[in-house]
Each structure stands twice: as C-alpha cells, then as structure tokens.
Design a protein that fits this description.
The chain has 490 residues and is mainly β. It is built from 5 helices and 29 strands. It is globular and about 70 Å long. CU-O-CU linkage binds at residues 99, 101, 141, 143, 278, 425, 427, 470, 472, 474.
C-alpha cells in the first residue's frame, strides 16, 4: 500500500485533468439545494496530524493522530439554510479529500476521489460549497485512504440547527461518539488499519474501545427530571453497536439527522437500535431523580459495553411523566412510489476483481483519474452485482451501476448474500427506508445509511438528483476492497 502510494503520488496532479467529458457521455450538472440568496458563512478548515494521549493518562502518547483544526472530533454548527464556503487546506503528509456525509451538496463538492475531484495533495487546498438545506446531525471525513485517516481520528461532526427546535426545551445535549483506537498498548503506536483477514470478514477492529476519544467511559451531568438530547454516532471504521440504555424513558427522535415520530426504545425488538459505521441517532432521554444515573450501553458484545453515564443533579425540577418530544418533520424531496423504477442489487463476496460489464476504456479521462489517484485500495474482496470498485495496479473505474434521471424516483432493493453485516450508504440523497425482510413492523424512516444483515433484503426509495454519486458499505475496509459502486444521474 505504502509503496503503491509513493509511486502514485507523482501522478496525483494528473488526476485533476480527469474532469473532462467521459466516455459515458456528458457529465451531470450540479444542482443547488439552496437559493442563491442563502446566507454564506466562509470558514477555513485544515486537516493535520497531532500527538494525543489516546491510551489514557500515564500511558505512552500517540503520534500521527489525524484531526481537523487540531481538535479531536471537531464540531461545526450552523443554522439550517446557511451555505458554508469551506476553504480547506491539507496539512497531512498524504493526499485527502473532505466528504460531507449525508449533506445534500452539489456533487462536485462531494469529496469522492477520483469520481468528483482529484485527491488534494499534501499542502494542497480545495474549496467546498456546502449548502445546508436540511436540519440534523451530520459529519464529515476524508474519502481518500479513509481506512487509514478515519482510523487515526479524522472525523468531525456537523450540526445543522433548526431554530424551531429551541422551543422543544431540551435541558442538555450530550454526544456519544463511538470510535475505537487501533494501537499497540505497550508503546501507543498505530497498528495496521487494513488487514486482509479483517477486510475479507467483518473488518479489523480497534484494540481499545473509546467514547468521545476517551478509553474511560465519560460521566456527564444533566438536571434531574430534565430532558437530554443525546447525539450518538458510530464513527468507527468497523464496529457495529446495539445502542440501548437502562431507562424506559428514552425515545429515538431522529435517525441520521432526520426527524421521525418518536420511537420508544423499550418498544423496539430487544430494546435496542443496531448502528453500523456512519449511523447517527438523536435520542431523547428523561433524567431520573437526583443522584440516580442513566447508563448508555452497546449491548452487541457478550458483556454490555458502557458507552456513557448520565448523572442526574438536582436543579430544582419536579418529576413529570415522560412524553417524547417530536422534532419538526423533515422537508427533503420525497420519492413517488407509484412511479418509481425498481432496481435490484446484491451485496456479495468477490473472488477477485470481477467486472462483468465493460469497464471504461483506459484512455477515458475518468479512468485515468482513477489510476492516478492515491485514494484506492489494493485488494478486492467484495462486489455489488458482480462489479467491484477497482483496486490494485491495473485499476479501472467500473461502469456506473445505472444511469438515473434527475427528478425520477427509484426503489433500490438491496440483498446481502454475505455472512457479514454491511451498512450501505448512498451519497447525495436522503432516502426512505421502506422495508426490511428481517425487521417487520419498523415504520418507514429517512436515512442516508442503512444496515443490511446476512440474508436480509432492504428496500430504500429516493428521488434522484443530478450528479455522480457513490453507493458503498461504510465498513471502511469493505469499501476499500471493492464494496462500492456509483450512479450517474443526468
Ligand atoms: Cu461517510 Cu462515502 O461516506
Ligand atoms: Cu460491508
């Protein structure tokens, strides 16, 4: 991987030439999700490396921790309807890009190298146009050597606030960022993030678990009998959790930032919500009496793993009965299910780089950009409908899974025929999860990433918006070893 990258670095600049008309015909035009008159907030953002005590106090410190603006898990906040104009600078020693996960940005700001931009070389800059049309809880991360860079911490939160939510009267907001560290416990050095054994199975796990970067589960205070808005995200490369807590007074009020009628955790099967990498939840938790605690767990492991403890402190509030707060309903474009075109996809294992349809001709600018990119994996273990995202030295961009029409509605039926879970993410869209063959009875909800279990078929629906958009598993080693395809929407 390292040597391949070194070889490719010299060619990275050539990738910039890739954004010319391709063999597939004309390129999509970017569509804006905000009016031209939207207020603009200009901000500088830099990715870089730092040293941090990841193993905890008194233990060897870790070098090469990747952060934005020198802040682990940086949090940006802006009101809905704002346009962020981000002047990004790459201070990492390697190429990177920024992907605004779940945000409906124009595709040329989607950060997918090499499909929508060339990798930003060390010391390079790129300017991103990031309209924020939908309130909610989003995040951003690189889309170039994600396994390595996200693995070392390069994840930031993006909160798009709706002023209408202020009157809901939450007393506190707390974050639960699930992200393990993959370190040698003796010296604090990073271990290899990509392993063939992991990439070809459920992914390579961290060696130490952490919440909000800390190996000791955080304890935070909130007013007794008060209302807490918990913002939970799985920012790990690999780990899937079964989110739950030890109180009945808790309800999911948003999934992937999109509001839904509150779902009481106690009414869900096993009283948990399964969350794979990239998934977010907003949970309304009612605090108990002064001195009592609410414990938030991952119940997926044999022994429940304590993620965070909320401690109730007396602030003079009186006990009232719990009524979950409903957030304002989302306004994202909805699919027309009666007119939708149905497309079926299988998530499979790959015996090798198998591309059944004709790949792009090697002299196609997009194919050249891909080959010149330093953002690609070196092995192929997975496929979607027998097509794997290119990898290795003879890398070629696979053809799009399908060319879609801007404004038309589509239903994707996704069947996982592997032995492992795959959280599938579609760029550029917020889709409706219509059904699952394994979880009957869950009402439809909006999301940008959906879990598919072994032998499960999940149906999602969306209204297509113009652009080149990838569709991939968010277990990062899976996407780096073939589990990614793309749609062209014209
Ligand atoms: Cu958060 Cu393409 O991913
Ligand atoms: Cu996967």
């Amino acid at each position: 991987m390292i040597s391949r990258r070194a070889v490719l670095l010299g060619g990275a600049a050539a990738g910039a030439a890739g954004f010319a008309p391709s063999a597939l015909g004309r390129l999509p035009t970017s569509r804006d999700t905000l009016p031209k008159s939207a207020p603009v907030r200009r901000l500088a953002l830099a990715a870089g490396e730092m040293e941090a005590p990841l193993l905890g106090p008194g233990k060897p410190r870790t070098k090469g921790v990747c952060t934005y603006d020198g802040t682990p898990f940086l949090t940006l906040r802006a009101p809905v309807g704002t346009r962020l104009q981000v002047d990004f600078e790459n201070r990492l020693p390697d190429p990177t890009t920024v992907h605004w996960h779940g945000v409906r940005v124009p595709y040329l700001s989607d950060g997918v190298s090499p499909l929508t931009q060339a990798p930003i070389p060390a010391g390079g800059r790129f300017s991103y146009d990031v309209p924020l049309p939908d309130p909610g809880f989003y995040f951003f991360h690189p889309h170039c050597d994600e396994t390595g860079q996200v693995g070392r911490g390069l994840v930031a939160l993006l909160l798009v606030d709706d002023p209408a939510e202020a009157k809901l009267g939450f007393d506190a907001e707390h974050f639960v960022i699930v992200k393990d560290w993959r370190l040698d416990a003796d010296n604090g050095r990073w271990l290899e993030m990509f392993t063939d054994e992991g990439a070809s199975t459920s992914g390579t796990f961290g060696t130490v678990r952490a919440t909000n970067g800390s190996v000791t589960p955080p304890r935070v205070e909130a007013p007794a009998y008060g209302d807490v808005r918990l913002r939970v995200i799985v920012a790990d490369n690999t780990r899937t959790i079964d989110f739950g807590c030890d109180t009945e007074d808790a309800a999911i009020i948003a999934i992937d930032g999109q509001a839904l009628p509150p779902l009481l955790l106690s009414k869900l099967p096993d009283e948990i919500w399964r969350m794979g990498p990239a998934m977010r939840l907003d949970v309304h938790v009612r605090m108990p009496a002064p001195g009592a605690e609410v414990k938030v767990y991952d119940y997926r492991t044999a022994e429940p793993y304590l993620l965070t403890t909320l401690v109730a402190v007396d602030k003079g509030r009186k006990k009232t009965s719990f009524r979950p707060k409903a957030l304002p309903p989302p306004k994202v474009p909805q699919p027309d299910l009666k007119r939708a075109t149905r497309l079926d996809y299988l998530v499979q294992t790959a015996a090798g780089p198998i591309v059944t349809a004709e790949p792009l001709p090697p002299d196609d600018p997009l194919a050249k950009a891909l080959i010149a990119s330093a953002c690609v994996g070196s092995r192929t273990f997975w496929a979607i409908n027998r097509n794997s995202w290119g990898a290795g030295p003879d890398l070629r961009l696979p053809p799009p899974l399908m060319t879609l029409r801007d404004g038309d509605s589509y239903i994707l039926s996704i069947t996982n025929v592997t032995k492992h879970v795959h959280p599938m993410h579609l760029h550029g869209h917020i889709f409706r999860v219509l059904s699952s063959s394994k979880k009957p009875g869950i009402p439809p909800y909006l999301a940008d990433t959906v879990m598919t279990e072994p032998n499960e078929t999940v149906e999602i629906a969306f209204r297509a918006t113009s652009g080149d958009w990838v569709f991939h598993c968010h277990i990062l080693e899976h996407m780096d070893s073939g589990l990614m395809g793309w749609f062209r929407v014209l």
